Each structure stands twice: as structure tokens, then as C-alpha cells.
Amino acid sequence: MKIVILDGYTENPGDLSWDGFEQLGELTVYDRTPADLTAERIGDADAVILNKTPVGEEIISACPNLGYIGVLATGYNVVDIEAAKKRGIVVCNIPSYGTNAVAQMTMALLLEICQHVGAHSDAVKNGEWSANADWCFWNYPLIELADKTMGIIGFGRIGQTVGKLAEAFGMKVITNTAAKEKEKVSSVKYVELDQLLAESDVISLHCPLFPETKGIINEENIQKMKDGVILLNTSRGPLIDESALAAALKSGKVYAAGLDVVSEEPIRSDNLLLDCDNCIITPHIAWAPKESRQRLMDVAVANLEAYIKGEPVNVVNP
Predict the structure, then answer these.
(1) Catalytic pick from 22, 57, 82, 265?
(2) What are the residues whose beta carbons fall under 8 Å from the beta carbon of 176, sequence distance 6 or more?
(3) What pLDDT does residue 184 have?
(4) Residue 206 a catalytic site member
(5) What is the reported pLDDT for 180?
(6) Contact status, residue 69 vs residue 301, Cβ threshold 8 Å
(7) Which of 48, 78, 53, 12 is nearest to 292 (CA)?
(8) Pairing of strands 149-153, 47-50
(9) What average pLDDT does the segment 259-268 reach?
């Protein structure tokens, strides 16, 4: 079997091993693949592994040997699922590998907004504490999370883990979720979206990106929120109307935002949120601790191995 990895660098910049894939076939790894080289690099490969490199109908048609597409992520919107299905190509993703990592990052963003740890550390190193007349100082308002309400939009594995962490800080947790089939958590109140918007001191997004959730944080819904709400997004950038959020951040309607994702990645230099001092933006790293990436690697290899055995798992286009 010929296996091609199109954009392996973000998954494995050198601290992991591709040995699992090498044991399954003839492996070629590219750190990155420009769009105009995708079909050429797949060539006569039987299996292609990718993260964010788009594989549409035209590319699928140009690669007659292709039988398997493995996505190194949970989201698989970069693949034309219907075109793959018509060709009988199995497409598999990696569910659940980053639950703890993403939940941890969500709380890291919230704690940075509440405590400004980095800014205060910089102030100390810049001599502000040494020169201060008092035994302590703070340059930003400090916020205690206990007794605040955390509203979680989307209550799957990550949302539930964020909820547990929020409760550990003494927060009340409410959620709005489409995952009706999931077992309800007794300590969490399930509410309609408008109630969540109105009652939450902190709103954290953990829902998938679907047509019905795209732009769920928009001007209309922001106006339904409490004045001074904190907004967190470690899910998908297009869940937020960024122009509406930028306006709300500048007006103070939204006290602060902590974002690990934006609508277009890498972020454009003209993104309006870059001009908002009360918006923390990190470069889509919630998934990236080594432990999380190793789990992803292990599942990706297991997915391909199961396909080779004729018993594919984690198939998104059955």
C-alpha cells in the first residue's frame, strides 16, 4: 500500500514518530502541500492522510487508486465527503483525542482574562514592583470565578469536561446543546439559548460548525447577553461574527474574549479583532500538547490498519 501524508508538520514537527504508518505501507511524508500540488503528490497512492489540506471532487477524480482518506483531526470539512462516497472512498476522522487538552486551554484563556498573569509578570520584570510604593499592585481588574455562571454552548465531551473544570472553580454551569441523546449531568442546568445568553457571566463555545451554528455569536445574540460578559471560543472560528464581536469588545458590551480559533486561519492581518486590546488570540493550539498529538497519531494509525483489515472504524461517510 502506498501512503501519502500531505501536511504532517503540525501533527509531528519532529517530536513524534511516523513509524506506525511506515509499518503499514510505503510512506511519503510532506510537511505542507500547496493546493496546486495536491493531486500530483497523491498520485497513485492508495491512502492519503491530511489535516487541513483540502481534497475536493476534482482531486478525488484525478487520483484513481485512492481508497482511503484519513483526517488528522475531528473536523473533516476539508474533504468533499459526498464525492468520496460516490467513489467508494472511505473517510475517517479522529474523535475525542483532544478533549482534555482543549478543555484545559479553554480555562487557560479564561484565567488569563481574569488574572492577567502574563501582563503582571512582564510588569514585575520591567521593574514596576521594585519601584512601587506599596507591597503589591495590579494593572488590571482581577476577577474571581466562584459563584459566576458559565454558559456552555455545545455539551459533548469537551463541553462536559469544561463544565467539570468550571464547577471545580465554584462556578454554576448551564448549557444549551443539540446533543439531546447524551446523558444529562445532574449538576448542570439545560436551558434554551436565549436564557443562556441572558444569564451567563462567561460563555464558552463547544458546538460543531454546522450551517445552523455558523455565526451563532452575532450582533442580535450579543445584545441578549449580560453587559460585561466574557466570551471563549476553542471550537471553530466561523461560529462568531467577528465584526459584531469587535464592535461589542470596543463598546464594552463584551468585557473580554479569549479565542484559539478565528474565521480564517492563519489569521488575516486585517482581522478586526487584532485591534481589540481586550481580546486574547492564540494560534489554534488547544489541540497541540504532545500527549494529545500522540493520541491522535495512535488513532490515525489504528484507523488505517482497521481499513486495511476490511473493518474500518471512525468512518464519517458510511
Answers:
(1) 265
(2) 151, 152, 153, 154, 155, 190, 191, 192, 193, 195, 196
(3) 77
(4) no
(5) 60
(6) no
(7) 12
(8) unpaired
(9) 97
Q: Where do we find the cell 488528522?
A: 72
Kindly give the residue spans of alpha helices, DSSP state H, lying in the chain: 19-22, 38-42, 57-61, 81-87, 99-115, 117-125, 157-168, 193-199, 219-223, 242-251, 290-308
For residue 58, give the C-alpha cell: 476534482
Catalytic residue among 116, 157, 236, 295: 236
Amino acid at 162: V
Burial environment of residue 162 by CB neighbours within 10 A (0 to 12, 13 to 18, 19 or more)? buried
Q: What is the 3-state secondary structure (H, E, C) of 51-106?
A: CCCCECHHHHHCCCCCCEEEECCCCCCCECHHHHHHHCCEEECCCCCCHHHHHHHH
Task: Give me the catalytic one of 116, 157, 206, 284.
Answer: 284
- Assign residue 173 a region (left: φ > 0; alpha: ψ between -120 and 50; beta: otherwise): beta
Which residue, 3, 68, 16, 7, is CA-closest to 294?
A: 16
pLDDT-derived band at 183, boundaries 50, 70, 90 = low
Q: How many CB atoms lie within 10 A of CB 261?
A: 22
265 is catalytic: yes
Provide mean pLDDT across the span 126-152. Answer: 98
Q: Which domains does the chain have, with CATH numbers?
A: 2-97+290-308 (3.40.50.720), 99-281 (3.40.50.720)
User: Is residue 284 annotated as a catalytic residue, yes or no?
Assistant: yes
- pLDDT (mean) for 256-278: 98
Whole-number pLDDT of residue 182: 59
